[in-house]
Structure to design on (204 residues):
């Protein structure tokens, strides 16, 4: 069970799991669900708005924001951090989001290409702006990855790609699916925990 950033409850179960079993599971864990939902929603409400942030994440590391009137775009320096132009907040948001999407498209392409070759997997790849899923796999073998994922460590990105590649063969989260995922990415449990614990910090 997992509580998404919007407060929705997500339960992953094998395809043939009976509805009554899931309903009983929710009822038995209702106190935990309500507690976690409140924690998640409180965390979201406490997020500082974009223009008040002092740092932004990229590949698992937080970089300070440095404003420079001479800057014409968004640049990332390992030493100084994000170099940003002094423009209106809404314009700056759009510039930063565009930069993240460009970085995500390039990095995700090469990581997907790596797994395509290594596991002889055939699929198409696209950037997504989804709010509740980090990745998805369609019936036409199109893997979608949320651009905000580029804020996470590379190992987490690889895990999400591996997760969706496993869905190319098994659409539901069956035992065969988890066995397939483990064969692609043995350390998937740790990365899944990272997303559950820290995924809420991957926002703009």
């Amino acid at each position: 069970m997992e509580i998404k950033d919007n407060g929705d409850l997500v339960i992953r179960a094998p395809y043939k799991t009976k509805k009554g079993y899931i309903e009983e599971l929710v009822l038995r864990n209702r106190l935990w669900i309500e507690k976690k939902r409140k924690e998640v929603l409180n965390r979201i409400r406490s997020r500082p708005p974009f223009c008040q942030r002092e740092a932004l994440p990229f590949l698992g590391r937080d970089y300070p924001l440095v404003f420079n009137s001479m800057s014409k775009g968004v640049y990332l320096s390992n030493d100084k951090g994000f170099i940003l132009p002094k423009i209106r907040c809404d314009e700056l948001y759009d510039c930063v989001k565009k930069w993240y999407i460009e970085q995500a498209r390039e990095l995700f392409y090469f990581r997907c290409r790596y797994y395509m070759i290594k596991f002889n997997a055939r699929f198409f790849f696209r950037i997504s702006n989804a709010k509740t899923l980090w990745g998805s796999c369609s019936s036409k073998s199109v893997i979608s990855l949320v651009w905000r994922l580029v804020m996470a460590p590379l190992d987490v990105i690889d895990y999400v790609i591996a997760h969706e590649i496993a869905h190319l063969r098994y659409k539901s989260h069956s035992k065969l699916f988890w066995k397939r995922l483990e064969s692609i990415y043995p350390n998937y449990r740790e990365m899944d925990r990272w997303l559950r614990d820290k995924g809420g910090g991957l926002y703009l």
User: Anything to note?
Assistant: The chain has two domains: 1-46, 88-201. Helices lie at 19-28, 30-45, 89-119, 154-169, 175-184, 188-198. The chain has a mean pLDDT of 87.
